[in-house]
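We were asked to recover a plausible sequence for a given structure. The inputs and outputs are reproduced exactly as logged, with field labels preserved.

PROBLEM: sequence recovery
POSITIONS: 361
GIVEN STRUCTURE:
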């Protein structure tokens, strides 16, 4: 897509320069000036969907930072960047002195609460303790039981294990460091759900893409090779800051191990939902972003009618028009540089594109 826009911009810049002079000339044409000879071409419907080209970055569908549930001093990090690990492998762990003490403390508190509950039940049977005292002892035991489960859970997550078979992308801490809860320790990639290329599309392209559309990806790291894939996901909202819509393309790596972060050129082929009108690139004047100007032939074929249109992708020597023109219109492809809205024209099979004669002061 970027290449299409650049090509369109170059074409439009040239035409804009010519058109700027043409406006002045057209404005000075005296009444009764002979019609300007022009060539025309019909608006045509695209025979196939436009190809959208954009840059994207390769990553696994699942790449996640792994961290400890609680804070503490790191005692060991066994993960190294680029290392392949099996599911359940120990990657890092905290010094367990404090954690083990918390677990022991919770168990001791539960033991005491259990003794208190047994005594409260006995006293209640002898009508020495009240019902409220029995209920308080029961609640205290339940709380102590919950604290044991919390302490044991924290001890379990004071050790980081690989959630699945995968690769260590980055190691972020070293033994002896004091980390807080949630601090990333390693970045882990699993290929369980495959590799994807993520790219940001502008809204005018994103609306054309659907899940399942075909795609090809070429990486500079692998010249001459093309990887085929399908659109796996299209974002439902724009990315904050860029205003683009993220598209994920799941690719077939043919069993090869590709590194995360590779930049590739993604070509998306939307399925045709309704063929779009196209015009020759020579008809486009004064392009600015996705907006451009062109002239069409009036219904009586005697005048030029100026139109502001919304343009899409550049396909060969034609440009898709997303709005602003009727599908049965005839657009002016030669001689447009000397026209203004309403200028008399004469259709010629071989228009001589020369400026009209200026008024002599």
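RECOVERED SEQUENCE:
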């Amino acid at each position: 897509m970027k290449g299409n826009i650049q090509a369109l911009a170059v074409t439009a810049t040239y035409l804009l320069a010519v058109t700027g002079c043409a406006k002045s000339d057209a404005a000075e044409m005296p009444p009764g000036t002979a019609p300007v000879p022009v060539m025309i071409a019909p608006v045509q419907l695209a025979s196939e969907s436009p190809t959208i080209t954009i840059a994207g970055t390769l990553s696994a569908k699942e790449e996640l930072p792994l961290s400890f549930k609680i804070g503490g001093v790191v005692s060991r990090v066994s993960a190294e960047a680029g290392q392949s690990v099996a599911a359940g492998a120990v990657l890092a762990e905290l010094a367990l002195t404090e954690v083990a003490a918390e677990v022991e403390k919770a168990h001791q508190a539960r033991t005491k609460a259990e003794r208190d509950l047994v005594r409260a039940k006995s006293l209640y049977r002898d009508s020495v303790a009240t019902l409220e005292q029995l209920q308080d002892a029961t609640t205290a035991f339940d709380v102590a039981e919950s604290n044991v489960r919390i302490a044991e859970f924290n001890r379990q997550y004071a050790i980081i294990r690989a959630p699945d078979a995968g690769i260590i992308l980055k190691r972020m801490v070293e033994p002896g460091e004091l980390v807080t809860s949630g601090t990333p320790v390693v970045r882990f990639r699993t290929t369980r759900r495959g590799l994807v290329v993520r790219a940001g599309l502008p809204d005018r392209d994103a609306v054309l893409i659907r899940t399942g559309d075909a795609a090809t990806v070429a990486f500079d790291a692998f010249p001459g090779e093309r990887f085929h894939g399908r659109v796996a996901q299209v974002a439902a909202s724009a990315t904050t800051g860029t205003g683009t819509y993220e598209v994920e393309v799941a690719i077939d790596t043919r069993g090869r191990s590709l590194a995360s972060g590779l930049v590739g050129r993604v070509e998306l082929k939307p399925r045709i939902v309704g063929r779009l009108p196209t015009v020759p690139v020579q008809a486009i004047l004064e392009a600015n972003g996705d907006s451009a100007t062109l002239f069409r032939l009036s219904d009586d074929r005697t005048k030029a009618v100026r139109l502001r249109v919304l343009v899409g992708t550049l396909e060969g020597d034609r440009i898709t028009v997303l709005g602003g023109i009727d599908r049965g219109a005839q657009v002016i492809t030669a001689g447009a540089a000397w026209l203004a809205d309403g200028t008399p024209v004469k259709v010629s099979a071989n228009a001589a594109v020369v400026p009209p004669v200026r008024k002599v002061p």
